[in-house]
Amino acid sequence: MTHTPVPFPEGFLWGASTAAHQIEGNNTNSDWWVKEHSADTHIQEPSLDACDSYHRWREDMDTLARLGFTDYRFSIEWARIEPAEGQFSRAELAHYRRMVEGAIERGLRPMVTLHHFTVPQWFEARGGWTADGATDLFARYVAACAPVISEGVSHVCTINEPNMIAVMAGQAKRGDIGFPPAGLPTPDDETTQAVIAAHHAAVKEVRTINAGIQVGWTIANQAYQALPGAEDVTGAYRHPREDIFIEAARGDDWIGVQSYTRTKIGPEGPIPASDDVERTLTQWEYYPSAVGYALRHTAEVVGGDMPLIVTENGIATSDDSRRADYYAGALNEVASALEDGLNIQGYLAWSALDNYEWGSFKPTFGLIAVDLETFERTARPSAVWLGSLGRIRELPRTAG
């Protein structure tokens, strides 16, 4: 077995990711805040203060920069910027602009996500993505973000994991609660088309703001693996849940690949992982190689030389040594894909912080631990190791 590090490509993004609702706290005008506090909610616990990163973002960026990371992906909250329909908050736009400038001052390149699962209450009340005029409303919000992203932001993500938005919309229409033991529920067709239209409109708005911004979106990749005789079943299962969204990225400047585990598909459909496999705190199979499958499949579908960026990848665990091992395995896959000629332009871990994982604080994904009582931040050993790779600008590569 040999260890041959792979140098970062020129301009390689090396960082960590977060999402506004999961770390900011008190996003009281968002649809998720309403869901968390409704009388009949199935959500385990509310986000409340989350990590209080709305006030502590400087400390978070200081820590990432000190560790050696060069990039930080964070989202801006539509519900803060447009708390009531057609009414835009100059104070909140200025807040997010300060974050952009703060990142740059610390040597962190900001990647800004415009939508990460949450929408304003008023947008949800109108019917959400499938309501009349929803695409125009999203485009108007994107245009209003010009003061935040017009200068110093090289990469913008329009919508995070649109396939999961469509999946959750399908569940809501059917009245389903929870996910099946393996695979994803059927996405809602109408929502699929709506978010694709919203993405295309947002791309145009971003390019109008600044033609130099690299704009794309990020897909939740399940690393579908066909068992013998199930190739056609796998393709039919995957397309509405993943490939249609990858195909919609053609013409974008990059596409985000987000993967955590794999899904095996047999002749009858998804097959649950066996009882004896190692599982993470989210009960997903521990499978660091997932990101390699996701990168290769995405490149195959989108075609050409489309730039790929790993915008999320990580593990929820209480054992930081397993976190470090997971990242080592995942980065080995990234290095291998680079060696094979894939145009991979960045790797951003999920997540910079322990955060609110859409119903619970228990799944700890963070490179940086957060005490939810005191909000004290503590960089884990895995963060120190991962950040150090940014200084040497090399990916670990094990061959043998």
Automatic annotation (TrEMBL):
GO cellular component, one term: cytosol
Pfam families, per the entry: Glyco_hydro_1 (PF00232)
Record-level GO BP terms: carbohydrate catabolic process
Molecular function as annotated in GO: beta-glucosidase activity
Record keywords, A-Z: Glycosidase, Hydrolase
PANTHER family recorded: GALACTOLIPID GALACTOSYLTRANSFERASE SFR2, CHLOROPLASTIC (PTHR10353:SF209), GLYCOSYL HYDROLASE (PTHR10353)
Membership in a protein family: Belongs to the glycosyl hydrolase 1 family.
Protein's name in the database: Family 1 glycosylhydrolase
